[in-house]
Amino acid sequence: MTTEKKKAVVLLSGGLDSATVLAIARSQGYELYALSFSYGQRHIFELEAAARVASSTGVADHRTAVVDLRAFGGSALTAEIAVPKGRTSGEMSHGIPITYVPARNTIFLAFALAWAEVLGASDIFIGVNALDYSGYPDCRPEFIEAFERMANLATKAGVEGCQALKIHTPLIAMSKAEIIRKGVELGVDYGLTSSCYDPSPSGEPCGSCDSCLLRQKGFGENGIEDPLRCSS
Q: Strand, coil or helix: what is 152?
């Protein structure tokens, strides 16, 4: 007699963190439903990376939802605003940078919640991180805890008591180096991912935005070469 796997919706941007989270969810025995977003981001190349990562991981389904956040702008990722380059670790650790996309994780988790309810899934995975991150308010544990409480009040399944939603944040207290170490342990091919906020049209990373610098720092602290730099 075979036991049916529990289903999990995993937010998959195509970046280093989300690829690691997908591998963690797989290692925990979940049937994987990957959800990506075309939201008007300047780094649209990440969606190609998400497709590669989903395919290599063997997900049950991978969908890309379209929501145009360029309608509001307010971020270097969704408006004609320059992406900050060459910031130090100290500069990254203070304030909320212009690459913050207003309410992005709230919107993404709302979509994930809707799909999870349709699937009958009680688990959502997201790669937020509160250590090596750029000061985004929607990457904090307080935000995730509040959204989880709201989610269990907002759905038919939650109200009827037949589905208690859990939002998993396995990277929340990990450094970038620890995330990479975990991913390597789980066999993640980081050469398939894309982390850059301002890549070239062909997807080559700029090497100097916050995301690129944090990625370089994580690989450097592990004493290993980033496969994207090897192939460039």
A: helix
